[in-house]
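Q: What would this chain look like folded?
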Amino acid sequence: MLAADVFVYVNELSPILTNMARALTPAGIVAFIVKTHADDGVELFPTLRFAHGEPYLRDVIAAA
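A: My prediction, written as structure tokens:
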């Protein structure tokens, strides 16, 4: 599955990644693009694009 230039418009990635993981075949791969920032959590930039912190991304990916 590929999500290119999509997740920057989404605040909470957990529900999406969980559903993507459910739909994958056992050898499936998910690839996506995100904007990141140095802290944890999610920030909304003046460009109206979200940036996700690395700890946040690791947590939601592991939970999915």
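Residues 41 and 57 are 8 Å apart (CA to CA).
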